[in-house]
Amino acid sequence: MARYTGPKSRIDRRFGEAILGSEKVLSKRNFAPGQHGNNRRRKMSEYGVMLAEKQKAKYTYGVLERQFRNLFEKAAKSDGITGEVLLQLLESRLDNVVYRLGIAPTRRAARQLVNHKHIVVDGQVVNIPSYSLKAGQVVGVREKSKSLEIIEASLAGKAHANTPWLEWDEQTKSGKFLHRPERSDINENIKEQLIVELYSK
Question: What is the pTM assigned to this prediction?
């Protein structure tokens, strides 16, 4: 399945935010990519603003258009505020939880760990990054993968207190998915209401 594998800095410069982690590039070149990126931009239309917000959310979570649309439709049928439920569904994906637990330094790295069967859910290997976690499920590292350098380095610099909806067990190097996060616990700069308005057109 096609997925964006190009330069992270190009995406970050397009949105003017380090959504894929290119802080250093943004500090030096805080303008859009391309030959005319440093010129003054035209004012975006209302539709353009909404579309950009959806694209930003897709790139942030590494989700393709069809997957994103399916998640939106699921959110629209659920109880609660559609935009918030959409973000909760995105945060409940296995690759995102692996990233939030600090097992991987980025969502891209988390997706790769899941694909390569380094991650277990309730003791069973799960290699589907889009797997949706339910309350009470435990996410951990496969026993023979615990010594991987990328995992050890990532866990060494992680503060787990930032994710109150996850419970980390240092002893077993695993985390419990307590519940879907509240909107206030999701620190991504995404205006989800614009995405709802886009799909409602």
Answer: 0.83
Q: Which two tokens stand for residue 89?
A: 């569904």
What element of type H or E holds 140? Answer: strand 138-141
Contact 69, 54 (CB under 8 A): no
More confident residue, 185 or 2: 185
Evaluate if residue 105 carries a pLDDT over 80: yes
Angle at 108 between CA 159 and CA 193, to 5 degrees: 80
- The secondary structure element, H or E, covering residue 121 is strand 119-121
Distance CA 44, CA 48 (A): 6
Distance separating alpha carbons of residues 35 and 37, to the nearest angstrom: 6
Confidence class for position 126, pLDDT limits 50, 70, 90: very high
Which contacts of 128-131 are long-range, i.e. CB under 8 A and separated by 24 or more positions? 128/94, 129/62, 129/93, 129/94, 129/95, 130/63, 130/67, 130/93, 130/94, 130/95, 131/93, 131/94
User: Which H/E stretch holds residue 175?
Assistant: strand 174-177
Of 98, 107, 88, which is closest to residue 183 (Cα–Cα)? 88
